[in-house]
Write the structure tokens for this entry.
Amino acid sequence: MAQDEKSKTDSIIGNMMGYIDTRIDLLKLDMQTKLKSAFVSTIHGVLLGLVALMVLLFLNIFLALLLNDLLDSRFWGFGIITLFYLILLVILFVGLDKKVFQGMADKAFRNTIYKADESEQTN
């Protein structure tokens, strides 16, 4: 009888160890999937940002050269474009509060990072 109880206890401990090992493997797999997804999103975002920067750069050069041609000048187009960005910089630096960007960040991350946490809490 003592050996029967011992075998049941060993069986229960073995099952619990198997369960714990499986949970650890599932957590590792989940972390790997999330890291892969974050890596792919980061690379995608960097590439999109780089292409957008190049488009913006060449668009600004095009507009400056067009203004130079329209104003029959060699430098006024570049000066006007530079003045536009200087005014935009002053507006962003002085006029906008960081709370605006904090609100945008909260809204953007509400549907990504915390979505899984909220769905787990409701279950």
